[in-house]
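1st attempt posting a full record on here, be nice pls
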Amino acid sequence: MPKTAETNSRLWGARAHDWAHIQEGTCKPVYSAVFDRVGLQRDTAYLDVGCGSGVATQVAFERGACISGLDAAENLLAIAQTRVPAGKFHAGDLENLPFPDDSFDLVTGFNAFQYAGDPNAALTEAKRVARQDGVIVIMTWGEPAGMDAAKLVAALKPLLPPPPPGAAGPFALSEESTLREFALAAGLSPTEVFDVSAPWHYPNLETALKGLKSAGVAVRAIEHTSEAAVDAAYSKALEPFRQSDESYRVGATYRCLIAHIETK
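the predicted structure (as tokens):
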């Protein structure tokens, strides 16, 4: 397995259960909105790259799609397989998809492409495995200004090692013009960009910390500093979002681009 996949497998698989059962589901409203927009139908050949524990593929399967998924973390893939037993799940890199050309009607990357070792190569691979009349969806963070969740992302920055030169940050594709240019550079035809609000809800601080610490970036911060340091940073950042019943509500917005295949 290439180095990028090995690293991501370790980081994102470290707390797979918490990611699968607390954090990943926060994006479920986005998955449903995307499938509504693209008109996902029964027997649609669907591939989710960076599929995690399979929440998106489960939503698609319940609508009748034929499911394939790829992720770096085998611990997450094992959960995805239990959620969609009929699905075909593979471990690997986004830049080297183990599928033939022209295989899928729909390919999605939900907060995936910007985290690839080579985002442009990853999107080009998605185009390769999509059919001539297929659709590719790129989901990324919404613009960070004023977003509650962006404040939680920023809270970890002092606890992380310096990023490699030229590394894309989490909001690298958030600006609409940048997102469209990213799709155009891969030879795709962007047709629509839309935002979806998907707030994060946690019943208490313990659950919030478990969910937030299950993300690969948080695992990296724990490795670089300590779990106590990450707990302290997140607890402080969460305080403005605490509700009267001790639950937490954190606003989060995601930006989605729908693109069609122009030429192979």
